[in-house]
From TrEMBL:
Keywords: Methyltransferase, Transferase. The keyword Methyltransferase applies. GO terms for molecular function: methyltransferase activity. This is DNA methyltransferase. GO terms for biological process: methylation.
Length: 273
């Protein structure tokens, strides 16, 4: 089977057993659930999926060796499977996974040895990498077939996707119910934004604030905003000049770019841009 056919089969099997796990081992089941639902770091689940796809496509490889730099007969390029096949699969099925490869993250790049459980990967949360490596070892030592683990991984991701969509639908419905009510005062709006900025995982908000300002005032300024790229995607990969890109109305050349940082901007940031 080709990688595309493997992914199609995995998705169909996951959809058929969406509400019931096919993994009998509770320890492995807990590991999968943790890796898939770790919202603070999505690199683990994408690494896991890449290695499982490589193992299913080439059964003789070791899923713990997704680096050609290892130079052994059972090593392979996990990044190739990640970028060439998983990206399209993830986008097609709207799976809640990073839009870019896991192999360019600081923790997972420039590795030339197997991802064994005695390896201490420097990344947070620590348990994410620990459990991901344990799952790869489970497959390598034949404690669980690669296809079963892959089906379970996609199944949990599909459940998470549906849960997120249901939550969003509920929030939108609540907004519809408040339509026609008194608008918030300027002071209340500033308070809400300040509270949001003080929350954890709110780094996307400054981007949305600037984008919303241009949406509101763009016609008067004769300027328009380009569609926002993924918040987790590197500018070098997307080809963007910054988090928010502004064009003159009716044109597509960027005249203003905004880059949001949770720290003071340095000269190095400007040089890199």
């Amino acid at each position: 089977m080709t990688p595309e056919e493997i992914l199609q089969d995995i998705q169909q099997r996951a959809a058929a057993t969406l509400n019931a796990s096919i993994v009998t081992d509770p320890v492995i089941r807990e590991r999968v659930d943790y890796v898939c639902r770790c919202m603070g770091n999505r690199a683990g689940v994408r690494l896991l999926m890449s290695c499982l796809l490589g193992k299913l496509h080439k059964p003789n490889v070791d899923p713990r060796k997704p680096y050609t730099e290892i130079g052994e007969a059972d090593s392979f390029s996990g990044r190739t499977y990640d970028e060439h096949y998983l990206s399209r699969f993830i986008n097609e099925h709207r799976l809640p996974v990073n839009r870019t490869t896991a192999f360019l993250t600081p923790t997972l790049r420039n590795i030339d040895h197997a991802l064994t459980t005695d390896l201490e990967l420097v990344g947070r949360p620590r348990d994410l990498y620990k459990k991901t490596l344990e799952l790869l070892e489970d497959v390598a030592l034949q404690r669980i077939p690669a296809d079963v683990l892959f089906v379970e991984t996609v199944r949990v991701l599909m459940l998470l996707r549906d849960e997120n969509q249901a939550r969003m639908d509920s929030l939108l419905e609540a907004l519809d119910r408040t339509e026609g009510g008194l608008p918030l005062s300027s002071e209340a709006i500033v308070t809400l934004i300040s509270q949001h900025l003080a929350c954890r995982n709110a780094s996307r908000l400054p981007v949305l604030v600037v984008a919303a300002a241009y949406e509101a005032a763009g016609a008067r300024l004769s300027e328009s905003i380009l569609p926002l790229n993924s918040h987790n995607a590197a500018d070098l990969q997307t080809g963007s000049l910054g988090d928010v890109e502004i064009c003159l109305m009716g044109e597509d050349s960027v005249v203003t770019a905004y880059e949001m940082k949770m720290r003071r901007v340095t000269q190095d940031d400007i040089d890199a841009a």
